[in-house]
Amino acid sequence: xxxxxxxxxxxxxxxxxxxxxxxxxxxxxxxxxxxxxxxxxxxxxxxxxxxxxxxxxxxxxxxxxxxxxxxxxxxxxxxxxxxxxxxxxxxxxxxxxxxxxxxxxxxxxxxxxxxxxxxxxxxxxxxxxxxxxxxxxxxxxxxxxxxxxxxxxxxxxxxxxxxxxxxxxxxxxxxxxxxxxxxxxxxxxxxxxxxxxxxxxxxxxx
Length: 206
Description:
The structure is a single chain. With 206 residues, the chain is of the alpha/beta class. The protein has two domains: 6-54, RecR Domain 1 (Helicase, Ruva Protein, domain 3); 76-201, Dna Topoisomerase Vi A Subunit, Chain: A, domain 2. Helix content is 41%, strand content 13%. It contains eight helices and seven strands; from the N terminus they run H-H-H-E-E-H-E-H-E-H-E-H-E-H-E. The strands form two sheets. The chain has a five-stranded mixed β-sheet. It has a two-stranded antiparallel sheet with strand order 1-2. A hairpin with a 6-residue loop joins strand 1 and strand 2. Helix 1 (6-15) packs across helix 2 (23-35) and helix 5 crosses helix 8. The protein is elongated. The mean pLDDT is 88.
């Protein structure tokens, strides 16, 4: 791709670094920005810059937040005895979009994958154990993608909290094995949460 402007070329290069954005799509984005008023572009780039510099991670659940604790954790209307365990922030957004869950969350920041060098130390698992003990959580809902790595993570966490007085459930398998939670449609995801089952139905805890 040949450019007549180094400034355009640099902007296209930066946009194409985003996942799923090729050079042609990046070029369309850059040309659209070129059509916009300079003030609109400044607002766009300013919002991106503020997001990157000022966004925080909730000290309770590890979700993204504008302050030390996210809006979900400080909401007095949420069921504080119920914690839904998810792989990443995108899964929180997906479940919240169903409007069928009123508890809290715990974002692991990934799932166990020894082949990729991801072990328990790289995930937010120790803070989950502490949270269950200190905040009298009565139910952990395992809402991880139904993959081998996801099931391995469910099993590991279940073993870590097996001596605590907390029930462990998992979302119903309306989502096909190997599927990603964030790509499930809202209706399927809502039914999977509503029809969650005891963990023993899926994982041998012995």
